[in-house]
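Listing S7. Sequence submitted for prediction.
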Amino acid sequence: MSFLNVALLGGLAAFAIPLIIHLLNRSKFKTLDWGAMHLLDSVVANNSRRVRLEQLLLLLIRCAIPALLAFCLARPVLTGWQSLPGDAPASTVILLDNSYSMDAIGASGTRIAEAVDDTRLIVDSSGKGSDTSVILTGGSPAPMFDTPVFDSKSITDQLPFLDSGRGATSLADSLELGASVVSAMANSRRNLILISDFQRSDVDALTPAAIERFRQQIDSQAVPPSITLIQRSGDAEQNIAIEDVQLSTRALGVGQQLKVRVRVKNYGVSDVPEARLQFIVDDRLVGVTELAVAGDATAQALFVHKFDAAGSHVLKFEVDAGDDLKTDNQYLAVVDVIDSIEVLMIDGDPSRKPMESETDFLAVALTPFSLGQMPLADLVETRIVKTDEVDQQTLEWARVVIMANVAKLDDERTAKLQDFVQRGGGLIVFTGNKVDVDWYNRVLHQQRGLFPLPIQGIGGGLDDGDRGARIVAQHFDHPALQIFNSGNSGSSELAQADIAQWYVLTKPASTSDNRIQAVSNKAKADASGTDPQASTLIRLDSGDPLWVEKPVGKGFVMACATTADADWNNLPLRPVFLPLVQQLVTSIATRGVPASNLTAGETLVALYDAAAADTTQVLSLPGNKQRSLRPVADQQRSVIRFAGTNQPGLYTLTQPDAPPRHFAVEIDRGESKLETIDAEQLQTLADALGADVVTDGAAFLALDSSRRHGREIWRLVLFALLGLLFVELFFQQRFSRVRQ
């Protein structure tokens, strides 16, 4: 026997209440001797024994009443009770796998259709008073309804609209959630059913430790559920999928070329001689290619496209090879095309002579097509000003500000520049011979935080005998520098540049996601006076940082330890200078912009102006669903955050009089290999989980009818309690009449 409300067993102590009342109210009398007492002694002796027996009987009944009431409220369960079919209500949790591998088509239909039929049969067969919870396990496991429902029709009505095509099933998370839900359900007859194709990748991810935690979770329950596994794997084997789509990470402008590399993988063993791959942009077919993909091999295709208009564009890739699983034959991506990047360059050493101003090389690198009068469009629009021309108007126009060998700014302009970066702007600082080192260290670095690292001194020299330095050829992790990891613009090209003179910056503590390491880095940074958020992008072979970066508010600051012109180095004279400057400027201009391509479950973030906080945005979800959202004020702007992106597909934010914003949500392709565990391996898994294995819903019902379940007996106890109350009343009345 076990109890569903064990804590209420403490109420058994209430049996002492009648006993205490009885003891406190016993008759208290004084003995007086009188002459005729001996005539009554025999009568008194007989009556006293009878009265004591009557009082003892009433006391026992009255003590039993509160104890029985507490026993009833504790909901006692007799285990090992074999129920007849439909004899007792049941609490059932069905873990229904709706990951995209369940969309595979076999001879008898899709796996998900068979699983839904099993679910419908089990739910329809539940008896009166039964409660059921269906948990969809694809991606992140989540119940179909917030709480278990007693109306089976409400579940069966929703099954035809089930969202399939979700991400891979985590068996560990699903079993843990299922065990948690079933433990809080109403009935003592309990079932936990897992219906899945049991892909090998999912089963392999279920560790022995996770199985042990699940078993402990089940064994700790007052009434453990019966666990059943139903496999719906079908006979699908052949599958070809779009494994990955690689987009350029740099900002893209109107008329600029986008290169997209698409990887198609054949997960089957048979060769696919002709797989038709389509490239669709904004619902318009723009490219088609045929691929031959050998069994268990990968093929690639490269598409190139130019966009005629700025805005959010949807890219769709489809491969058709007549395979058994269509869900992973598509891949969505979103590209945000911008009109231009406005760059304000503050020239600290202007000159009327060609290529002698501090910003001349930068202007050529940022707008090569415009200066060369070529028909191609530049993404960057530049404006060059002197130090005293920096004002609020020029800063509001710019998305990126470049300080080139600027000696210093007055306090008002420095404050405006700080506000510009705090609100999300990008600042790039080139040093040089005009720099006021004391102002850079004291004001720009220490007070304003706009220079990542303090200047310690001068490295190298401009005399012939001075020893210069070169850039270290390395693998770059920063997104702006990843194009230099390979190809003609590799890091070796950067390493050919001669850096004759530079400012020696304090070396930053290396950044790390590891918390312990981060704490250590902060301690090092505090000791050295550097900023723990500063990181080195490019390093010289002298060990000194050349390019450093740090976040400031919602924006970023980059600083170069040498000049933007050829006075201290010959980097501006080399071909690699153009892609380097372009990459750094486009990167810092788009840093902090939320991603438009997300993984299922990742939070969707959209930024708006502060005025948009009072507007209503409509978010269209996959499956023709819609949600109304309001941007939340966040300092100088407003933001929308939406965490419900478990379903892959296209999410679109729209508002009146504004172009739509698209977000593509994709899933990991881990389930594209349609390999499931066999019957022997399934039985091994069932043994480890303490489960039974059946073939379908009908087999489960047959098994369940022969199982021994727990049976609540509180109703029987309640009837006994009512009977005891009647007996107490009867005896109390009878004994009173006798005494009268």
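Caption to Listing S7: primary sequence and predicted structure tokens for the chain studied. Confidence is low (pLDDT under 50) at residues 511-525. The longest strand covers residues 257-266.
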